[in-house]
Amino acid sequence: MARLQLHFILFILLTSSFPIFAALGIKTDGHLDIPVLRKAYMESEFEIVRASLEGFLKNHDKDASREEKIFTHMYLGVIFAADSNSEFKAESHFNALLRLSPHIEPVDMFVPPKIQNMFDRIKQDFLKQAEYREKFDAYGNPLVVPARDSLKRPAYPKQAEPAKHGDSVSDGEKQSWIWWTVGSAAVIAGGVGIYIATASDNEPPQKTISADGRIK
Q1: pLDDT, tens digit (0-9, with 9 covering 90-100), for 79-124
Q2: I want to staple 64 with a disulfide (CB 3.0 to 4.6 A). Which of 33, 68, 96, 113 is the partner?
Q3: How many beta carbons lie within 10 A of that of residue 170, not counting itself?
Q4: SS3 assignment, position 107
Q5: R_g of the chain computed on alpha carbons
Q6: Taking a C-beta distance cutoff of 8 angstroms, is the pair 90, 123 a contact?
């Protein structure tokens, strides 16, 4: 009977003390007291920080601010990454963190090289997948993006170029070329005739010698 009472007392103490530890770093309005949690982390109180942050994320996931979510996922990721049995949880929190802030780094947390290398690998994979999703759809098909030149440059009708030697020419083009040639030849011939007639009128009369030797 006494042993049963002792177990009951221990159960009451454990269950009543747990909310005290879980409430560390939680304000009366339910939001995080980040300086208190950061201080506890720097003092290696990892289990207390983990319990507080997991309870906060469970109860305030929808109304938590972006900064509170970033802090929660960062610190939970680092704490879980320290234990090889909880690396899957660490990767889950790091991916949630990168979705909120893709270029963040765990600064001022004094993480060991093992955790830093893990975070760098997850971040590199996350950024590579984000770049892939910008170029391909869920089935691997390239996303069609209109060319910039087609959006800026209006299409103008192309001017006809003169036919080169050996190119095929239509009948209409042949006829217009023939009439143009004949007309040019007529103009040139008329100009030559006028020049000859004018020159003959202005030419001085030729002198001749008569039978008696006089110059006429």
Answers
A1: 999 999 999 999 999 999 999 999 999 998 999 999 999 999 999 9
A2: 68
A3: 9
A4: coil
A5: 49
A6: no
Interatomic CA distance for residues 202 and 205, integer angstroms: 9
| Location of structure tokens 């030697």 | 165
Residues near 135 by beta carbon (within 8 Å), at least 6 away in sequence:
142, 143
- Written as one letter, the residue type at 167 is D
- pLDDT tens-place string over residues 38-86: 999 999 999 999 999 999 999 998 899 999 999 999 999 999 999 999 9
Phi then psi for residue 86, to 5 deg, are -125, 30
Q: How far apart are CA 91 and CA 70, in angstroms?
A: 14
Return d(Cα 4, Cα 73) in angstroms, integer: 41
pTM: 0.57
The structure tokens listed for 81 are 């990454």
Is residue 98 a contact partner of residue 71, using CB atoms and an 8 Å limit? no
- Distance between CA 96 and CA 53 in Å, rounded? 14
Q: Say which residue the tokens 């691997």 belong to.
A: 140
Buried b (16+ CB within 10 A) or exposed e, 85-113: ebeebbbbbbbbbbeeeeeeebeeeebee
Lookup result for tokens 């009472």:
5
CA distance 207 to 204: 9
Q: Which helix (H) or strand (E) holds 118?
A: helix 113-135
DSSP state letter for 26: B
Q: How confident is the model at residue 138 (pLDDT cuts 50, 70, 90)?
A: confident
